[in-house]
Amino acid sequence: TDAAAFRKALFSIFGERELPPIRTSDSHDMITAWKASPQTRKAYDALFENMPGTEIKYIERVLEKTCNANTPIHQKAFAIVTCENLLNPDLPDIIGKERIIKPLLPIFEEQLKNNNLHREDNLSTEGEVEDEEDYPFTIDDE
């Protein structure tokens, strides 16, 4: 799936040393520990920052590896949300839920149009309901 490609690109950009691998089939406890790890937190904090020695943000590199000039803007926004949700320590899962993903898509679409990618600090991600339906695009293992 597209989400799997975004996830694969994210892990390749950070590398195993900087961001240990995790799979959707891993236990809830393993996912919780992975999200709480210093490496995951560091990757989350760096996602919208420039890569060392470049003017390219980590999230922009994900887009470079997974998208092209013909990729619709909503698909690029979905890539950003997928990576953001995967690393977000405030979200208990690594598979995005529709109520979390849907409101973020137009925000990142607008940022892409304005060439100004950044994390929205005022968005609430707390209180995710465990039994919500998964968004049709999930982070699948290959």
Give an overview in words.
- This protein is mainly α.
- The protein has one domain.
- Helices cover 53% and strands 0% of the residues.
- It is built from 6 helices and no strands.
- Helix 1 crosses helix 5, helix 4 crosses helix 5 and helix 5 crosses helix 6.
- 26% of the residues are buried.
List the defining traits of the structure above:
142 residues; mainly alpha; 6 helices; 0% strand; globular; disordered C terminus; 14216_t:CDS:1
Count of beta strands = 0
Secondary-structure element sequence? HHHHHH
Question: What's the overall geometry?
Answer: globular
Distance between the termini: 8 Å
Please, how many helices? Answer: 6
Are there runs of 5+ residues with pLDDT below 50, and where?
Answer: 124-142
The overall average pLDDT, rounded, is: 85
Sheet bearing the most strands, described? none
